[in-house]
Design a protein that fits this description.
The structure is a single chain. Helices cover about 20% and strands about 35% of the residues. By secondary structure, the chain is α+β, with helices and mostly antiparallel strands. The strands form 12 sheets. Strands 14, 20, 22, 23, 25 and 26 form a 6-stranded mixed sheet that branches. It has 6 domains: about 35-120, Macroglobulin (MG2) domain (Immunoglobulin-like); about 125-185 and about 215-275, S-adenosyl-L-methionine-dependent methyltransferases, CATH 2.20.130; about 280-370, Immunoglobulins (Immunoglobulin-like, Sandwich); about 375-410 and about 650-705, Jelly Rolls, CATH 2.60.120; about 415-645, Alpha/alpha barrel (Glycosyltransferase); about 715-840, Alpha-macroglobulin, receptor-binding domain (Immunoglobulin-like). It has 15 helices and 50 strands. Helix 7 (about 475-485) runs parallel beside helix 9 and helix 13 runs antiparallel to helix 14 (about 615-625). The radius of gyration is 37 Å and the shape is globular. The termini are far apart.
Length: about 850
């Protein structure tokens, strides 16, 4: 310490560490500990496990347990030794995971430790065997697969299995990610037993706690999956047999089976087999042509014999080629193929040896669609009973010879209402709004009682908030009052009167008209004498009301006996509705005090439209039946109102009759819906027939080509093609493209502001492959045969979309128009013109 120039003291210090023996170090109280060690981590049933338990609190009481799915054994040591050995006879009932835990109490703190024991449940293993009648097949052969299931003792056992036969080359891209059934049903499980300590938390908590731890047949059916059966039953002898045709692929196939018995014993097996020929022809063709395309098609000849051979290669309609192929090697040939008109080009190739027999021949056939231009869509839908006849929707510009129809039939509204209600019930009573929602939709008296109790417990003199002690919220208070009014017969005493008084007090204090409107409508729901005056006041003075609030007021007017006022209010809101081909919704954005979204507004609209017998009802129902994203109580109540009085139904078996021909639809194993697609060139109407009574929804969507770009485009869409210059900069494409060169396509799409999902397509021309496709924020990008498809939530501001293509084969190619259309409003679309491309080798 030294003084500075003014006489003030300045001080500095440092520390020096000195080593040496300075006597015994003073220590504090040692932390308690428990340690458990096993001779080995895994014990089979019948073995004896031996555990060594040690503690530094010798003489303290110790609780030792063996637990897992239940409490298996308990030992209490009043005065625990420092080391204690415990021998345990292992039983299968302890599997698949048991845990030894030990805890000591030394008067100040409680500490415990644990050690898991793996106990394999051998009786729950099913031995699955797969066998084929041959090791190798040729395409078109009928293969016989036999599945055998045996229990852990080798005895035949009946089981249910899922069997798939797939091209094993798929597993070179990604391994089989199917989790083993044994791990799912009988893998490690958590300890379900909890030990509770009665000592105060201040004593037993803290740092001492421890955590746990002629000519060959034609090959034309190319498939990735040769056979699949999700419900494959073996008999009492443990056997089942399936037969299937080997597809045209020349590859190694893999059969996979997962099996389980009634008592959840599980097993798994695979077997590989091959489909091959000594000589093969492979055609490399584009996924489709556009009218006028001239594209080079390549054929690859593979020779799997031990000597070089000459082969004659034919493509029907084109000049033959002769090529020498080395032993165990390959060679290429090519043809320039024309696509002069719409329809399809059938490429039929034949391979014959100049010298040799039938075993060295091959035939292959590929069909390539030829499209003529822009593809547009139209859709319609509604409700039906057993049978309905409807006009096939189609845009007037469509060439009917290209029209393709897709029909879907789904179950009625009752099932969707139950699903929405189930989602509400699963949320239970974590907040006041959730309790109110449960009260609105519950059918179990116990759920009703619990919801009423939860709302009674969280009541405050002036209403309800989010939780018991949260500030009172007007929208939540209105929601609770409506729920209580709907269940008034289940209430006790003056519960409804107290809720009415709270809502009335909130109305008088509330300064936001949106919330006043919700309270006024709720007062009408609860038959409050003041409800009518409050509704009248909101209509006269209220500003900035959301679609939901206005529709709730429309509901109130219906209850007050004013259908004309309700209709006028509904029609005013419906002017801003999003009405599509088969669905309609009432979109909601953001505003002061707005707390309900599109689903709730659409549900309120349906409740009003039902009473007004409005023509929007079927489209509103369809939207809500498919809706997701919350507000499930509103959805459930609206769909229940619609389904009331309508008989419950299943889809059943469905056929479509068109042009005198019956076309059966295929039923989904998941939800029972029926779907089918087919070409309908000339018919104007079709009939849908079901074998079930009750109501169902149907939807018909058509797509077809138009010769000219429609004039009434409502979506702006621009497209630019670019290639890299010598400096690595993208510039406009104004020359032929070279094989292997990249072409970047940039699209700008600009739609309207109506909430809807938009689909934009950048076609892939013949002879090109996708090198890269940009993702879009808040949307999805798919790469399909028809092109790169982007799904956008909306496009009220310009959206930029990009894809990079790579030229694979020479030719004169047409690039079809790029297109964009809204999913719910197929008539709102946009498209570019087509373009011609030249690709040089």
């Amino acid at each position: 310490s030294i003084p500075d120039g003014t006489g003030r003291s300045a001080k500095a210090e440092t520390e020096i560490y000195v080593s040496g023996n300075f006597g015994t170090k003073k220590t504090g109280r040692e932390e308690p500990s428990v340690d458990i060690r096993l001779a080995k981590p895994r014990y089979a049933p019948g073995e004896t496990a031996e555990a060594l338990i040690t503690t530094n609190r010798k003489g303290a009481p110790m609780l030792v347990t063996l637990e897992g799915r239940g409490l298996f054994e308990v030992r209490v040591l009043p005065q625990a030794p420092a080391n204690w050995r415990w021998k345990i006879r292992i039983d299968e009932k302890m599997g698949p995971t048991a845990e030894i835990t030990a805890g000591v109490w030394d008067g100040v703190s409680f500490v415990s430790g644990g050690k898991a024991i793996e106990v394999p449940v051998a009786s729950k293993a099913v031995k699955v065997e797969l066998s084929m009648d041959k090791k190798e097949y040729e395409p078109g052969d009928t293969a016989k697969l036999t599945l055998t299931t045996r229990d852990a003792k080798g005895r035949p056992v009946a089981a249910e299995a899922g069997v798939a036969v797939v091209d094993s080359s798929i597993f070179a891209l990604a391994p089989d990610a199917t989790p083993p059934l044994g791990q799912t049903f009988w893998g490690p499980r958590p300890n379900l037993v909890t030990t509770t300590v009665s000592a105060p938390e201040e004593v037993s908590g803290g740092a001492y706690q421890r955590a746990q731890s002629g000519i060959a047949p034609v090959r034309r059916r190319f498939e990735d999956t040769a056979y699949w059966n999700g419900i494959y039953l073996t008999g009492p002898d443990g056997k089942a047999t399936a037969t299937f045709e080997i597809p045209a692929n020349l590859t190694t196939w893999r059969a996979v089976a997962h099996a389980t018995t009634r008592d959840t014993a599980v097993g798994y097996a695979t077997i590989d087999f091959k489909a091959r020929r000594w000589a093969t022809l492979r055609l490399a063709a584009p996924r489709f042509f556009t009218v006028g395309d001239r594209s080079e098609i390549f054929g690859t000849v593979d020779n799997r014999t031990a000597e070089a051979r000459d082969f004659r290669v034919k493509l029907d309609g084109y000049e033959d080629r002769t090529v020498n192929v080395p032993a165990n090697g390959s060679a290429k040939v090519s043809w320039l193929v024309n696509a002069p008109e719409r329809g399809r080009v059938v490429l039929s190739g034949t391979l014959e040896p100049v010298k040799g027999g039938e075993e060295l021949t091959d035939r292959v056939e590929q069909t390539v669609p030829v499209r003529g231009g822009l593809v547009v869509r139209a859709a319609d839908g509604g409700t039906m009973a057993r049978e309905t006849t409807v006009a096939i929707p189609v845009r007037k510009e469509v060439d009917l010879s290209t029209r393709h129809v897709k029909v879907e039939v789904t179950a009625g509204a009752a099932g969707a209402a139950r699903a929405a209600a189930a989602r509400v019930i699963s949320g239970r009573f974590y907040s006041v709004p959730q309790a109110a929602d449960v009260l609105m939709v519950a059918t179990d008296p116990k759920d009703v009682r619990e919801a009423i109790a939860a709302l009674s417990r969280t009541w405050q003199p002036r209403g309800w908030g989010w939780f018991e002690d949260s500030p009172v919220d007007s929208a939540i208070t209105a929601r609770v009052l409506t729920a209580l009014a709907a269940r008034r017969k289940s209430l006790l005493g003056n519960q409804l009167e107290g809720a009415r008084n709270a809502a009335l007090a909130r109305y008088n204090e509330e300064g936001v008209w949106e919330r006043k409107a919700l309270l006024a409508a709720a007062l009408v729901d609860a038959d409050a004498a003041e409800g009518k005056d409050r509704v009248d006041e909101v209509f006269k003075r209220g500003l900035g009301l959301s679609p939901y609030a206005r529709l709730r007021l429309s509901e109130a007017l219906l209850k007050l006996g004013s259908p004309s006022g309700a209709r006028a209010t509904f029609e005013a809101v419906a002017k801003d509705a999003s009405v599509g081909d088969t669905t309609a919704s009432f979109p909601v954005a953001e505003g002061p005090g707005w707390s309900y979204g599109t689903n709730a507004a659409t549900a309120a609209a349906l409740r009003v439209a039902l009473k007004l017998e409005h023509p929007l009802v079927p489209k509103l129902v369809r939207f809500l039946a498919e809706a997701s994203g919350g507000e499930d109580a509103e959805i459930a109540t609206a769909l229940r109102a619609y389904a009331a009085g309508r008989p419950e139904s299943r889809v059943g078996k469905v056929v479509v009759v068109v042009g005198g021909k019956e076309i059966p639809l295929e039923n989904s194993r998941v939800d029972g819906s029926a779907k089918g697609e087919f070409d309908v060139p000339a018919a104007e109407k079709l009939t849908i027939r079901r074998d079930e009574a009750g109501e169902a929804f149907y939807r018909i969507e058509t797509r077809g080509e138009v010769g000219m770009i429609p004039d009434n485009q409502k979506i702006a869409i621009l497209r630019r093609l670019e290639v890299l210059n010598g400096g690595g900069i993208w510039e406009a494409l104004e020359r032929p493209v070279r094989v292997g060169e990249a072409v970047r396509i940039t699209m700008v799409v600009w739609g309207d502001g109506t909430p809807d999902a938009l689909r934009a397509v950048s076609p892939i021309p013949a002879g090109f492959e996708v090198a890269e496709a940009e993702d879009v924020e808040g949307g999805r990008t798919d790469i399909r045969d028809e092109g790169v498809i982007w799904y956008l939530t909306n496009a009220e501001s310009p959206q930029t979309l990009r894809v990079v293509l790579r030229a694979e084969s020479p030719g004169e190619i047409s690039l079809p128009p790029a297109e964009a259309a809204y999913l719910r409003r197929n008539g709102v679309l946009g498209a570019t013109s087509g373009e011609a491309l030249k690709v040089r080798g």
